[in-house]
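#structure-requests
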Amino acid sequence: MKTARPPHPTTDSAEAGETAFSVFRRRSFLVFGYALTPPMLVFGLALGLCLTPWGSPPLALALGLVVALVFGNPWPVQSRKYTSKLLQWSVVGLGFGMNAHQALQAGRTGLLFTVASIVGTLGLGFLVGRWLKIDRKTSHLISCGTAICGGSAIAAVGPVLRAEESQMSVALGTVFILNSVALFLFPALGHGLHLSQSQFGLWCAIAIHDTSSVVGAASHYGPEALQIATTVKLARALWIIPVSLGTAFFFKMPGAKVKLPYFILGFVAAMLLNTYVPALHALAPLAVYLAKIGLTLTLFLIGAGLSAQVLRSVGVRPFVQGILLWLIISTVSLWVILHTVA
């Protein structure tokens, strides 16, 4: 009688371990009358930790990444839906902590940097995309995300460009990965280079992609850096409109609709109210506090959206383009700021 071959200990134990973890993830536990799976429980606990005094933008992003890569996001559709809205309301809330006169001065300081960096990044992105033989739409989306405001710019330019879902995913994945790195890296570099509050605020507004990570990094650096970074970054975000119109022209997309970033008007309105309506000064700190909590939750949701599938979808050449553009704009802007801004 032929005996069965005993299972290979290494391979079968790995498969058994993987199967056991998959089974564990699908198990349901009754919590306060609701059937919840381990990914749901971990997601909820991590989200709750972000609301505690220990919660911070870098920690929130790190927790979101752990949830996404180890357990998986149990609510991916809802996370994507609320991330944008939560960020927009948080930005409006931050306006109640800003003075219009100081913000105007910061906007004037960053205007020349904004124009030069946007035009330079879009031009350089076109050349790098052709050199790496990346399709024009994906290359342009990555360039827009780097030049203006990350995922918001890609989401606005994509429909104008009539980009395919795969092209949008690659561009968003590239920008979000680099964005996550920047949130941890920039404050450390700023302290290491002994940058002033104004220097760091201007640098991260130019060199970090998404508004969420710009505000997160700047708030970690100091209040003056936060005001400068938020003002300059939102001024950059307004360039979504001319860049979208230029995209429709150069890519010959007649009838394309341009999406306006209306939440920036809310930020300006909140800032004007805080400056010229003294009666609101008592409520302003609460609005800013809630806005910072909203921003922390936004970064958690962004991290939870970076699944292994998103990371795999990026590809080598688009990621190389994103890194090259990011390194160049970061290095050049830092050199200029160090020599021109006190």
